[in-house]
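Risk register update: the risk of archive-format incompatibility is retired. Evidence:
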Amino acid sequence: MSFDVERTAIADLLIVTPSVFQDQRGFFLEVFRTDHYQALGLPRNFVQFNHSGSVKHTIRGLHFQWDPPMGKLMRVTRGTAFLVAVDIRRDSPTLGQWFGITLSEQDRRLLWAPAGFGRGFAVLSDFAEIQYFTTGTYNPVGESGVRWNDPAIGVDWPVSDPILSAKDKNAQMLSEWLNRKESDNFRI
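Archived output:
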């Protein structure tokens, strides 16, 4: 089995496509393999695996963690979702730029967003499940988010009236995050 890696317009943000073996019984694929990931320059030290389920029109995000800095390898295992990553690295030439991609259980692609990116998704199907490997363990004291509809970022969400948590609805703007000393942890 192998993996194809597609670069995006934002440095370090990658789309990973695993090869799939399929026959009349169903399919098989390797989602992660240390030696292949290492050869491709992808992370290979994931320490946590998360699984989220959400109803149609839910937006979760844009979340990130600075202590410890956390990268995420995200995939949709049920339904369809629009995954987003926003560059929040203070010294990055693409600071404030976003990338979005629609992924589904059928295409089996993954989105790699390293530490220094706010990540989120919008559910497009009746229900979707998103799984993600992380490079850091969750620490509620070292995590935050940027408002999903911050006009300075301008994500073109495919959902007009989203279902949001109170936390996401009241998240800070990117400019507020950049004025916090913790944002220094995302310098490149």
